[in-house]
Amino acid sequence: MEQKPQVKQTLPDVKEDPFPYDSWIIYALAVISAFLLGIAIYKELNPEYIKYQREFKALVEKKFGKEAAKNITFGVKQIWIPALNKTDRCITCHLGYEWKGLEGEDIPVVFRTHPNPNGLLDKHPFGKYGCTSCHGGQGFATNIREAHVIHDGGKKVRWLEPLLSAEKAKEYGFKDWQKLPLTEINCNVCHRYDDSLPGTPYINLAKKIVKEKACNTCHIINGEGGNIGPNLTYEGSKMPEMFDMRGDYYEIRDGQPVPTGRKIEDEIRRRGLPLTVFSWHLIHFEEPRSITPTSVMPNYGFTDEEKLALTMLVMSWKKVNLPAEYIPVKKNGTRTVQPDTSLKAQSASADLVKRGEEIYKQKCTACHQIENRLVGPALKGLFEKRSEDWVLRMILNPDSMIKNDPIAKQLYDEYKVPMIVPGGITQDEARAVIEYLKIVTK
Amino acid sequence: MKEKLYQVWRALVWTFDPSDRTEAGKAITRNFWLHWFPPRMTKASLSWSYSLWLGTISASLFLILAVTGIILMFLYVPSVERAYQSIKDLEYAVSFGWILRNMHRWSAHMMVAAVFLHMVRVFYTGAYKNGMSHMARREINWLVGIILLLLTLLLSFSGYLLPWDQLAIWAVTVGTQIAKSVPIIGDEIYFVLAGGTNLDQNALIRFYTLHVIFLPVLTLILISYHMWRVRKDEGLAITEQFNIARKKGEAVQPEMVFSSPWAVRRIFLVFMGTLTWILFLSVFLDSPLEEPASLEWTPNPAKAPWYFLWLQELIAITTIRIGGITINGGFVGGVLIPGIITTLLAVWAFIDKSPAEATGVWFHKSRLVQNIVFTILALIIVGMIFFAMYFRGPYWEVYWPWAWPELPEII
Amino acid sequence: MKEKRREFLKNLGRIAGYGVLGGLFAGFGRSLWPNILYEPPKRVRLLDPKNLAEGMNYFPEQRLFVFKKGDEVWAISAVCQHLGCTVNFVPFGGKVKKKILGKEVEEEWEFHCPCHGSKYSQDGDIYEGPAPRGLPFHPLEIDPATGYLVVDLSKEVKKDWRLKLS
User: Fold this and answer.
1) What's the pLDDT score for residue A341?
2) Would an 8 Å CB–CB cutoff place B97 in contact with chain C?
């Protein structure tokens, strides 16, 4: 309870300060706070972009005169595209992008007029496409590190689309890295149904390969194809978690995949490549079995250029919501639509079945019969029990199937003899045998 | 003219700067903001080393949060399509937007810490006890304080969702899944909290409304009641020591100071100190913002806010499998254990049997055992938070903090 | 001396204190003034002036007429000042003498609104119908960056304002 003061001494004079240091501490804190606020105001008035804007204004004054530079204001600038839900603030620093007359080598790169190769800009005006649609990067940001999404080992910039810069292309070993080849990926995000496009040499090369090698025999591409391999329609939207980087990396010796003791991510690092899905694809296109030893995807012997092209193609197959006014239309109003499915049709032709019969009689009858068990199981009713894809894998890769596939393992336990295909067999030959077996094992 | 201005100025501020004892006495009845205080307080109540002024620090942080929060309400948009962009705009395109957001976020984290430390202090000083007083019921204030702690955590949690980035949506997914694991009513709780079966626009607007009006008003009411109770309970617990000494026969005359201006000035000092600290953090340390929210992929690792990390660690390690029965760690670690801890805390003031002498004294020897147990539990919780923060890496595996593996990018 | 120094430091502290609180207030207040807008821009790039037709050019997105006579161009809004319909361009096919608002004028075209019958002279003056004021003229300029013709829809100019194309 509050004591009623009995002795006067306990009631101080109000001018007697019981805590004489308090005021001084408050003043000290105020000075420190004012100093901190000063730093904040300084940071606010001197953002990174301001020196670029001042430099640009001076440049324009020098080159075109004070009158031309009159309307150049300072502050955050942006291109807002509501249809794509994009806000690109690149132009806060990249101020010369639409000025005529700033193309020269003497102009700093950041201020240079945006090049217009083959009239690209006329078909893709800034007000409709912005910057990041083609170049990637974080449009919201107003400082270099976060706008260009630079990975320098410091605090990670949390943005999924990095700038598809020349430096990045250099890291992947592009010979023409200065031409920003990686931006072709973004071209194809919208132009994926065009069978070729001027200005995208890598993508065009990749599409040619896809057509020639008939990749859609095994993979669903653009919504159509086989299902021996994974569906690649939205391969470019897959997150890194979905790619096995910690699995074993294999080498092929005497035609068989052998573990090297390295992991896939170790191999990527060993080659000096960045640890990315892009690098994973490069390695996979080079030798699919180095990542998945039971893969039936052959080694096509792609050159470095072809590997880069194909990787860019699959990375461009992204899931996007394109408003109707952005869908590319060819000049004569048509679009190339369907991928080449003629190989699929081929699989039922009579010639193929005849060929399959020849190969079967040559390579398989040593161990298999249709009606009876021999060295290996009878093949009657084969396709009622097993999928076509399982049979294909069994023919092409019997030893790894026996090691890794549960059904093959069971069969091996029962039959005790590993399946061997005398003289080996190519993919085309295996397909032919399957077509033949589909008829005779019914 | 100068004289007139001076008179007006004096009329406005005399209650904060009384010129004599009479004015000092009248100040608290004549000023709305000061009516909280008694005309005089014991000097001991105002000591730094007794209370560490953690309650005032918490209240100062609440004030900073309210002011920065109101300004942010003009700038943030609670829609799933626009929330993320509005936060990006704060960082890059709004003048002083970055410091606004930083001050709000740092004050929020500091407030959780301050409120927790305040509870620890009250426990160690036995300040929930009533000493010799027949009128005081400080255990009620202890209970109100526990509720305020929970409200602070909820305020922080509801605010966490608003940026609608990966950190927000996955942290809240983890949190709401814990709510879901409550038996029988779990699914209904989740359904009401999220306004649906998924975290989407309904969840965002509900969390927003909770965060900007419902919880702050509730908290303000309880803070007011909490402070009023101190008066009703006849002052801070340390004043009980004077009564105990008097009972023993000692001639005790506690030194008194006028509330206005000395206590007021000290409170302002604490506020300025808090503000300085928050300004320091906000000017140099930026608030994080991850990729836009997507339920199609989970960041690796996905972590709850730090004050819930101990729960996440518990959940990860308390899944019990006996025979064919599995009790989800979410329930054990997320509901059962924290539920038990909170209940124990809440009722402790009512069941504590230590003697009156232990009221308002640091580490009184009669409370040694409870202090030790409390300390151990608190250290375990803090330890788990540190562990989960620095040692749990990708895939929730254990790594040395400097040896986190590099995670692959897309390109 | 010591007293003076103490007084000085006290005042420094007081100024700093008020400065901090005032500065925070001012900073937070400034944050409420938008720096960027999510709106279509008011200064709009129209076209390369060499693509301008002689006479009437219409820009539907901005609802703007741009007229070219020789080397002079000017812009007048097509938004009726009554309730916002788009007015029709009504050419006379030659010069016509008329009496408008008590004055004798010679006109080649007018603007008539199809919604409620407002009629504007060639100079944008309202002479018939419910509109409360005439059609606004907006200033044009050549953008030094691209050489394009740019209209500033946030500004208005008098009806005799012309831009000379060089």
Assistant:
1) 39
2) yes
What's the confidence (pLDDT) of residue A176? 93
Collect all residues with Cβ–Cβ distance below 8 Å to A293 and sequence separation of at least 6.
A250, A257, A400, A404
C23 to chain B: closest CA residue: B96
Stretches in chain C below the pLDDT threshold 70: none
H, E, C per residue of C124-155: CCEEECCCCCCCCEECEEECCCCCCEEEECCC
Asked if residues C153 and C39 have their Cβ atoms less than 8 Å apart, the reply is no
Q: How far is CA A169 from the centre of its chain?
A: 13
Beta carbons of B265 and A6 less than 8 Å apart: no
Question: What tokens appear for C161 in the block?
Answer: 């304002």
Q: Which pLDDT does position A349 carry in this prediction?
A: 66
What is the residue type of A186? N
- The reply to whether residue C13 touches residue A82, judged by beta carbons under 8 angstroms, is no
Q: Decide if A44 and C27 are in contact by the 8 Å CB cutoff.
A: yes
- Determine which of C24, C25, C35, C36 to mutate to test the interface with B (most B C-beta atoms within 10 Å): C24
Sorted by sequence, the CB contacts under 8 Å of residue B220 that are 6+ apart come out as: B62
DSSP B349-388: HHH----GGGTT-TT-GGGHHHHHHHHHHHHHHHHHHHHH
The identity of residue C138, as a single letter, is H
Does residue A255 have a pLDDT over 90? no
Selected for mutation to probe chain B from A8, A19, A39, A142 (highest B CB count within 10 Å) is A19
Q: What's the pLDDT score for residue A375?
A: 86
List all residues 6 or more positions away from B370 whose beta carbon is below 8 Å from its beta carbon: B348, B352, B354
Pairing of strands A248-253, B256-258: unpaired
Please provide the size of chain C in residues: 166
B253–A17: do the CB atoms touch at under 8 Å? no
CB pairs under 8 A between B and C: 29
Contacts B89 to C, Cβ<8 Å:
36
Distance from CA of C160 to the nearest CA of A (A): 24
Please say if the pLDDT value at position A10 is more than 60.
Answer: no
A239: phi then psi, degrees, rounded to nearest 5: -80, 160
Burial (CB count within 10 angstroms: exposed 0-12, middle 13-18, buried 19+), residue A103: middle
CB contact under 8 A, B100 and C31: yes
Check residue A11 and give its pLDDT. Answer: 59
Interval B185-206: pLDDT, tens: 888 989 999 999 989 999 999 9
Inter-chain residue contact B95 with C33, CB threshold 8 Å: yes
| Residue C27 touches partner B, C-beta closer than 8 Å | yes
pLDDT confidence tier of residue A340, bands split at 50, 70 and 90? very low
Distance CA C67, CA C64 (A): 10
The helix (H) or strand (E) run that includes residue A282 is: helix A277-286
* Interface predicted TM-score (ipTM) of this complex, two decimals: 0.91
Whether omega before B261 lies within 30 degrees of 0, making that bond cis, reads yes
